[in-house]
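Continued from yesterday's entry.
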Amino acid sequence: MTTCFIDLTDTGYEVSTLVDLLGYRSQNQPDQRAYTFLDGETEADQITYRELERQAQAIASQLQSLNATGSRALLLYPPGLEFIAAFFGCLYAGVVAVPAYPPRRNQKMSRLQAIVASSQATVALTTTSLLGYIENRLTDEPELAQLRWLSTDNIASDQAQSWQQPQVNRDTLAFIQYTSGSTGTPKGVMISHGNLLHNSALIHKSFGDTPNSRGISWLPPYHDMGLIGGVLQPLYVGAPMVLMSAVMFVQKPLRWLQAISDCKATTSGGPNFAYDLCIRKINPEQRASLDLSSWEVAFTGAEPVRAETLEQFAATFADCGFRREAFHPCYGMAETTLIVSGGLRNAPPVICQVDGTALERNQVVTATGKQEITRTLVGCGQSLLDQKIVIVDPESLTPCPPNQVGEIWISGASVARGYWNRPEETKQAFHAYLADMAGSPFLRTGDLGFLQDGELFITGRIKDVIIIRGQNHYPQDIELTVEKSHPALRAGCGAAFAVEVKRQERLVIVQEVQRSYLRKLNVNEVVESIRKAVAAEHALQVYATVLVKTSSIPKTSSGKIQRHACRAGFIMGSLNVVEDWSENPQNKAKFIHLQADIESMLQKLSTAKQL
């Protein structure tokens, strides 16, 4: 593996783990504010590097006294800085952290149970207030009741004195990132200290941040983009970071941009939907108070990056000082720690227009303006430092020519060690070889794309591609067409997928309705608008359209549509339906009942095999 860490040659300080990194910051920048947490618009908490290390050592000492070194610890925290202290407390104790979303009130704990069972966690860390709520529910959750629960916000700081340096190195497992799964069940990705430092170096190369940079993040720290991009990257660079909760942002998107304006932030970002939300929810009077001229890196990733969103956001906030060149599309995933590709600071996004019909045949043909269907794709940057990207034919396992769409394969020191306790899936995904079996193994991402002059373009996921009459259709393209077809439909809240009807693949649309339209919805008008738009743009007939309630469509923690979950909900009849339409209602009912019986039978067979 190539060492690609912070250059501290002149200091004589060796950094090969995150414990070394925080120790270096604490020693050399002890009183510098590391993180600030905003509760709405108000500063609620802050912590310096020295305070953070002391808290981490105190928590680690407590864990060491429980003989937890080498075990897994579940981290359940409300928004705030306590999560960061607990995360580093695990690292300082040689305990593998397992971040997870804290349960909402009246929410089932099935996901937490699955994570605990998979990770074999023995300890759970949380706050005093959240522990009180969880304890009231433990009688109904026997798997969680078996954990040793520890509230870390009341651990005395003088316990740091009994902390012992753990035996950790770059190959030591730092944490397990449970993916939320846009196409499958959650899996635990094993991330080492070396993975984290290498990926931080890639982000540093792409973003070009310095100790003088200033960051703002509302991304949840339980998710890879929020943890690595929002918490660990500023530590790597030695730059201050201001954090706020995702709920505060979603409730009032102005808070995000106002924080950037007030703090003169240079680096901030999020998924495509975040920029869409700002366009829709921030009015001209509110925009007049914003100064976004300091914003140099507006990264966007975690879901398809849409050229239309970039253009609209840049135009909407141009008077606030926002520059289009600040947009920084990137691509990554938990299996590669975080980032795979990204542009360079101040380089404008690369936009590519291709022939949509050719793209359906996995061919990349530059659009000339004469084609009936044109697809606009946003480049996600280039491979960074020593990381390698290859576009591979998923059937022949040979590299694709430049004008062909294939599966994206990755090789490099950021690629994780595999899936926790899933050796077969680890072998299939993380130990892939090209047909000639030469060179190092690759990670198979399951994503489709192509390289053009070194720029990576993402076209979809293998499992999500809709194949109708031999033609490939990318669901995100259809979903964009649908959401733009009528004002009653919510942007970024639709799913397109195929079901088999009479031995033919047919298109189904599941789409959320705007809350303000629920009482006055003209279903026939909306369905007709969807059908006409899809037919015009994609030459496809819609077999069934399901309009569902606001905020009910299944999504991952990073905002990606869970198309397989939507399809399962359609088949099982479990979607939160406002109204639905089908080309043939009687056939649809028979189809749903038949598929539900099949799904039930398969589930029983799977359970029987496990037993």
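--- second protein ---
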Amino acid sequence: MTAELVRGQNHPLPDTRLELRVSAGHPVVAGATLGDERGQVAGAEWIAHPGAPVRPGVEVPEGAAAEHRIAVDLAALPDTVHRISLLLALPPDAGGPARFGTAAAPFVSVADPAGAAVATYTITGLDRESAVVALELYRRQGVWKVRAVGQGYEGGLAELLADQGAPAAADLAAAVLRAVTPVAAPAPQPVPETAATTPAAPDPSSSSTTTAISYSHPSRRTAPAAPAPAAPDSGAVPPPRSSESPSPPQPAPAQSRPEPVAGDATGWTMDERLYNQVWGMFEDLARTVAAYRSARDFADHRLDRAIDQVLADPGTRVGGAGDAARAEARATHEELMGRAQEVLDRDLAHLTAESEVVEPALPAAYARWDNPVWHAYRTPEEPPMAVRLGDLHLPERTGLRIPFLVRLPLERGLWVDAGPGRTSAAGLLDDAELRRLALDSAVAHTARLLAAHPAGSLTVHVLDPAGSGAAAFAPLAETGVLAGPPARGAAGVTAVLAQLTERVDLLQMAVRGDAAEDLPPGFDPSRQLLVVHDFPHGFDDRAVTRLRYLADEGPSVGVHLLMVADRADAAPYGPVLDPLWRSLLRLTPVPDDHLADPWVGHAWTYEPPTVPPGSAVLWQVLGQIAEARRRNLG
């Protein structure tokens, strides 16, 4: 089974002949350094790069590309080499991003001679860095392992090589980048004049109720994306070519587009291609709507300016000349608005057609509950790249819903907000109904997470201190997919939290000491999910501290939270719990526009995944999971 690594985690290698694979979605330079026991590089002859792609035991590509394959033969390495570091750097003047934080998270994997993936790692958390050590293969006590590193360098390749002790690192880095085969930038697509300015990303931390999401994704194969449009609130208005006759923005000319095809994106597997295609659709919708809003703003601004000019001139302020000027300005405004709407309708029609093709082809982990794929559900042998936690849409086309896919393993906990929402849908419900919907939503999320994991690889614990969630938890409890009955009372809360806290401590010590193989006999290797209901009922100060610890430290060692809570209920704790709420991905039981992308600043409406009324699909899927778990244990 493929190991999905998190930063700092290691995994044994089954063979000496391996292939390292890189998928970045934009041009990167791939290289490798051969280091000693401390990871230090003795000189340029121990670095494989495009100008010198072959070194003992390793061969790298000769150019910059979005995907790479690096051949490694550990048996051919000199005895003095104890570590191979896989390096990724952004090439200058390649038409791509200047830092990793503005691009898709690179994905790397290690494959055996048969092509099967041994371990994978998604390099997240990068910002201003332009070079990164993705992973390393290292030898310890005669055994080779792979470790996920993800160490980035703002100073680029020069700083990276200097950190590994390479002499004359700056000169060497410059020589490496000069040797890169030039990569042509994609031809820019025609865009409206208003789309020429890209605003700075808004600060997602400015609002406690807004969560930032990123729509960067590996490149789609259909067409290069147009430059990002200006956000409607950015204040960016393109200047006219002359003060008398400003040139209106021109819509992009119609292009012949191929019929949409499911899986039309980069990736080694259909699962990965569909994942990339979904996020490509998200990006295309964001750009299309941003261009439309910017074009409308330009038209409004142009109309206001034309009217102001008429009023500012005493000769045209009144009379026939003034009336004619105002009529001409309004006609131009209507024409610009019509062009913007025409382009929007065209692009939305294409995205709608693509959605209608992609949605039925999605695997269970990415599909809605009403998709027929669930009727043929079987537990997977390997977890997928992501899981669907709902849908996203914009007001320009509410019927066009983009799956909200969250990568696995979860990098942060989940919080289903049971408090009153800001939308009209939430305003129509009383507190009791909102809490019921929140708990039902959490159970559906739990079922999805269980369904996305191989049998026995996710263990679920439930805290229900007051027992008020017994009816909602019935599908989980009665099918037997839980680790035990939902814990009740303060004693039950304390026992479960103590067990999971001890587990996190033990795993962290094993990771830091590179001693995962020394865990106690019978240690359960599965990931853990703790579902917390009715917080903070049943929690004392020590329990709250342990919960915060699990939220902060648990995800890195496979312990995850799913909380169902109204933040107002925990108000007596004051700001002590603010870090807890900020660390969790907020979801809602009813549609709510609390998710924002950090590029163009759209407020996306999130809709939770709901089981069709009267459907038994949730019980059927949980029954399949429970049966597979019993077979696995037997």
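Residues 182-255 have pLDDT under 50 and may be disordered. The longest helix spans residues 270-312. Will compare against the first tomorrow.
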